[in-house]
Amino acid sequence: MPKRDGKWFSRENYTSRGKFIQCDVNPEIFSSKQEDKCPKCKKLREEWFWCRFCEIKEFKEKKWTSGNKDIDELIKESQIKATKFWNFIEWIPSESIEKHDLIGKGGFASVYAATWINGPRIKPSITDDGTVNIVRAERWPVALKRLNKISKNFLKEVKTHIELKNDYIVRCFGITKDPESEDYMMVTDYVENGDLRKYLQNNFRNLTWKSKIEMLLEIAKGLKTIHDSGYLHRDLHAGNILPDRIVQIADLGLSGPADLIIPENQLCGVIPYMAPETLRKATYSKSTDVYSFSMLMWEMASNKRPFATRSHGTYLILNIAEGLRPTIPPNIPKVYKDLMVECWDQVPSKRPTVDKLIKRLETFLNNICWHSTPKIALQFDHAERCRLESLTNEIENDSTHLHPEAFYDSRNLSQYSLLDNDESKLIVNDVNDVDSKHYHSEDLSNIDGAIYLEVDNSTNTHSVELISMSRGLSETN
C-alpha cells in the first residue's frame, strides 16, 4: 500500500475491490488557488492536483503501439477524453503481465487470472516543488479476457466498458497481448469470489435476506447504468455477475445500443435467462434484461440454476415461449415473489422498468432494516426465520442433478430457427438435435413443468394470471 502523503492528503481509503484510492484532500491546501494551478502550464488543475492538460500533452507525445491501428486509436481516444487521472484505458505491454491459470472458458472467450506488475493508477503524489507523480498499486490482481476470434466485437466490448464506467460495472484497465498466441486480451478487475453461481455455492448458508436484497439492488443499479446510457446488456446471467464488496456486472460482449438489430443467425445467450420474445423473434429491449434479472432473483432465492434438470434445447425453448417458468421456491416473501413474477411476465410491457425495480428493492431493504411498512417487514422476518430454521438441514443445490445438456455459458443458438409467425412451432436446422422436429403447442400436453403463464395464441394476447399446471412430471428445480 502506498505511503500516506500527510502533507497533501488528510485521509486515504483503499476499496477492497481494487478500484482506486479515494483521497480527501487537505482543505487548507486545496482551497489555495495558487496550489490549484499547474506549475507547468499555469492552468487550474481539475482534481486532486492532477493537470488534465499536461497529461493529455504527454499522452500525445508518448511513442508506443499495440501493433493494431484500431486498438491504438481506441486507447488514444480514451486518454484524450480522460476527465480523471484514472478514467481511461492503457496499452499494457505483455512484459508487465504475469499470466496465471485459466479460470473460465465459455463459447466465445477464455478468462485467465493474472498479475499486473505495474498496477493501475491510484492517486497523484505531490512533491515539495509541486511536481505531480502518479502512484500505482503494484502487483495488482487482474483478469485477462481473450476472445476466441479477434474481431470488431473485441473493440466494441472495450469501447462499451469505456462508456459505461461505473462502480457497478467491472472495470477495464486496458489491453495487452499474449506473447505466446499473439492474441489481444482485455485487462479487467479480478474478483476473487468468482461469479454469482460460485458465490452462492460457497456462501448461500450465510446469506441473509438483507444481503440478498442488497446484492440484487446493486445488480439493478448496474443495469440502470447500462440502460441510462442507451445500451442493453443482452446476456445477463449468473456467470456475468461478480460479487465482492460491490456486486458488478461483467461481460459486455453482447451489449450494444438499444436500437441494434441482432440477426436471427447470430442469436446467442443462455436459454434459461432469455426472454420468450427473444427466443421467438430475436427481439431485445430493456424488458428482456429485466426478464433475465427475474432469473437472478429466482437463483438468489433457491440456490439453484433455472431449469438445471432440463436439456437446454428445442423443448425448453418452446416451453419458455409457451409460458414455462421455474417453480417458485417455498418460504420467500410474497412481495419478493410478486416482483419476480412481474419481471418474468410473458408480456414485455408489463415488466417493471429498471427504475421501478430499484425503487421496489429499496422499499424491501428499508423494511428489512427499519420496518417502515409492517406488512412487508413481517414477510421478510418470516422468510428469515425459515432460512435460519433450515440451516439444520443440508443446503440443496443443483450440482448433483445437472442435466448433461444444460449449458450455462453463452453460446450460439443459430442451430435453432425461431418460432414462426403463429408462435406455436419451432423449426430446428440441426438434424442431429435430439428434438429436431416441428413442435406444435398441441403436442405439449406431456411436457414436464409446474408453472406456466397462460398464453392465448389465438388472439396473440397473454393473460397475466399465474397458474399451476400438472403436465406429466413436475419441474424438479
Automatic annotation (TrEMBL):
Bilayer-spanning residue ranges: none
Claim: Iron is one of the keywords in the record: no
Keywords, comma-separated and alphabetical: Kinase, Transferase
InterPro entries: Kinase-like_dom_sf (IPR011009), Prot_kinase_dom (IPR000719), Ser-Thr/Tyr_kinase_cat_dom (IPR001245), Ser/Thr_Kinases-Pseudokinases (IPR051681)
SUPFAM superfamilies reported in the protein's UniProt record: Protein kinase-like (PK-like)
Domain Protein kinase residue range list: 97-365
PROSITE patterns: PROTEIN_KINASE_DOM
Gene3D superfamilies on file: Transferase(Phosphotransferase) domain 1
Pfam families reported for this sequence: PK_Tyr_Ser-Thr
An example molecular function term from Gene Ontology annotations: protein serine/threonine kinase activity
Source organism, top-level taxon: Eukaryota
The protein's name in its UniProt record: Kinase-like domain-containing protein
Native source organism of the sequence: Glomus cerebriforme
